[in-house]
C-alpha cells in the first residue's frame, strides 16, 4: 500500500508567538497504526488538528489521499474520522440520531444498516434510543468513535481515546482498532499510555516541543534504542563488589543479594560470558539469572531526557 497522508514542513505559530509545531515531515502508510507519544504540550493535538483542517497551519503542506487539506479541504476531510479528547456530543439527542446525523454531515446517503453495524461493533445498539446524557463517560466516548466511523473514513484519528476509561473498555477499544486496521483503515493514535502504543502500534512517533524527534517501527526502535539487563540473584549476600567485577558495569542492590548488568543485545560481544566467569573466579554462587528488555517507556523517557525535557 502507498502513502495515505503526506506532511511536509508543517508548522504552526499562534498569534502570541508560541510555536506549537516546527517543520514536521511525516509520511503515513495506508493501513498502518501510528502512535504519537509526547508529554503535555508537545504538539500532538495541534498536529492532528492541522491535518484535520481544524487549525490553519502557518507553513508546510498536508495531503490526505492526494488532496491538499487547505485547497481541497472537502475532499480531504471526507477521508478522515476524528475522535477528539473532549466529549462533545449533543446531550439531549439519542445515540442513534447522533451517529446517523454525523454521516449526513459528510454528504453520505442514509444507510440504516451501516449505522446499525457501527453501533453493534461498539456495543451501542442497545443504547440507540438512549439520550447521550444518560450514558456513562465510557459509553459517550464510544459514541464519539461511532460518529467518527459513520461516514466510512479511510483515516481515523484517535486523540487520547482511552483517557479516563476503565481497563475493560480500554481493551475493547484496542480490539476495535485492530479490526479497523484489518479492514484497511489507517489509524493515528495519540496517547499517554505507553502500554497502549506498545500493544497496538506498527510505528511510533515521538514528539516534543513541536518537533517530531523520531519515527520508527516499534520493534526497530526497541532493538536500536532499548537495552537489556541481566539480573543475578546471589545465594549469599555480599557487602561490596569484589575486584574481579571492576571491569564490568555492574550494580549491587537488594541488601547485597542482587547484581544488575546492562548490555546491548545487538552488540557482537555482550560481555555476559566474561562476567559469569568473573563471578565464578570471585567465588560467588548464583541462585537465579534472568534478563529484562527495555520497554517502550524506558526508550521514551530516555529520548525526552536527551532532548532536555
From TrEMBL:
It holds the Pfam family ABC_tran. One of its GO terms (molecular function) is ATP binding. InterPro entries: AAA+_ATPase, ABC_transporter-like_ATP-bd, ABC_transporter-like_CS, ABC_transporter_ATP-binding, P-loop_NTPase. Residues 5-234 form the ABC transporter domain. It comes from the Bacteria. Keywords: ATP-binding, Nucleotide-binding, Transport. Transmembrane segments: none annotated. This is ABC transporter ATP-binding protein. It comes from Tropicimonas omnivorans.
